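Course assignment 3, question 2. Fill in each field.
Student: A.L.
Task: Predict the tertiary structure for the chain below.
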Amino acid sequence: MTTEAGIVRPPAGAQAVRRALDVLHCFHDNGPDLSASDLARRLGLSTSTAHRLARTLLGAGFLEQDARTARYRLGPAMTELGRLSYHQRGLHLAAPELSDLAERTGATADLALRSGPYAVIVAGGPVTPRAGLRRPLHSTALGKVLLAWPRTGEGGPRSVPPHASTERTVAEPPSLAAELVRVREAGYALDGGEPAHGVRTVAVPVLERAGHARFALAVRGAPELITDARLDWYLAQARACARALEVLLLAPAERREPGGRAG
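Answer field:
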């Protein structure tokens, strides 16, 4: 809504919607169930306001409540929407490719997308225990790929809050910007102990036709597995899988050549 003075104001009720969404975001860390007072403390709200928001979300199925402890967790509506989004994005089609990549390399394959300042793992192979795990973009190879090939409207390195997960993490915007130039020129990102010690990861973009990263694909394993001597081989395997996913994850209409017929 725009006033006569040209000031843009949010529509009526927008603050309540924003607060309700903030409540849902409190459950991102996959921790224990949360009470109304927990939600209030995390959001800087009064307990009564947090309670009202939680009860509204409870009534809509976005939260559910433990009858014994009265604490909240994500509800069935979130599960339903998550599954719908998973299939709408074609991620169920990616699972066999990721499992094959993991089997061929002996490593773990992760597929991630960007959610604000985070890289969120949405699929993996051979199993997906890390699915739904999110990490700051700047501290992982997956995140650096998503930053190096950003989609329209996504912020660059200065939009990412600096935070060092380990002493190897590139956290300051100027250093991160230089790192992203190197990633783009090389066509891949590599980390070894930035988000966590004892893990080495090589990641490549899964590009859309406009040249932006729709997803990032990573092969992850112990440094003794992904050695410098074998890095090129792991990179080739990851790139081959990424090329397959670039086609597989397109909507059927997008697979047709412009002006052409499906064949």
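Instructor remarks: The chain has a mean pLDDT of 83. The CA atoms of residues 8 and 182 lie 40 Å apart.
Grade: pending
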